[in-house]
């Protein structure tokens, strides 16, 4: 907010870290076991694309029913990846609940005009849980 006095960089980093903890704690306290969401997407570098990945966060370790579908501007999916292929770590929120972080390293993510990613639950008739578009609207 431009109405706030300027903060030193260190204060901004600490504030950001505190906000992250508060958000994670609030989500952990209010979510049911079915909470799964796309947390981060890295699809484009300056120059050659390297280290592309998608980070998905869940309130449960078993994400075998979930997959990611990648879409191009035509609205057609060009790649699907199961979350069971992810590298998974667990962290504990302040309230003691566990939060799982699933990282999928995926090369070849499109980064032209109008691409997208869907988080899909195959146990509920391939229900789209979340859809994000980037580089334009699909």
Description:
- There is one protein chain.
- The strands form 2 sheets. This protein has a 4-stranded antiparallel sheet, with no helix packed on it. A 4-stranded antiparallel sheet has the order 4-3-7-8, with no helix packed on it.
- It has 1 helix and 8 strands, in the order αββββββββ.
- It has one helix at residues 9-30; strands at residues 36-42, 53-58, 66-71, 77-82, 87-92, 98-105, 115-121, 127-134.
- Mean pLDDT is 77; it is low at 1-7 and 9-33.
- It is α+β, with helices and mostly antiparallel strands and 138 residues long.
- The radius of gyration is 17 Å and the shape is globular.
Number of strands: 8
Give the overall shape, derived from the CA principal axes.
Answer: globular
The description of the largest β-sheet is: 4 strands, antiparallel
Helix content: 10-25%
Question: Quaternary state, please?
Answer: single chain
Count of individual helical segments: 1
- Strand arrangement in the largest pleated sheet: 1-2-6-5
Could you list the spans in which at least 5 consecutive residues all have pLDDT below 50? 1-7, 9-33
How much β-strand is present in the residues? 35-45%
Radius of gyration: 17 Å
């Amino acid at each position: 907010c431009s109405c706030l006095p300027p903060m030193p960089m260190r204060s901004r980093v600490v504030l950001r870290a505190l906000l992250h903890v508060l958000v994670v704690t609030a989500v952990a306290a209010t979510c049911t076991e079915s909470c799964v969401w796309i947390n981060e997407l890295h699809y484009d570098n300056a120059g050659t694309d390297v280290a592309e990945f998608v980070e998905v966060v869940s309130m449960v370790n078993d994400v075998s029913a979930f997959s990611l579908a990648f879409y191009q501007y035509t609205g057609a999916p060009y790649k699907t990846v199961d979350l069971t292929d992810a590298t998974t770590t667990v962290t504990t929120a302040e309230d003691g609940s566990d939060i799982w972080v699933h990282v999928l390293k995926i090369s070849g993510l499109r980064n032209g005009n109008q691409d997208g990613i869907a988080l899909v639950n195959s146990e509920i008739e391939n229900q789209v849980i979340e859809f994000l578009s980037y580089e334009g609207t699909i």
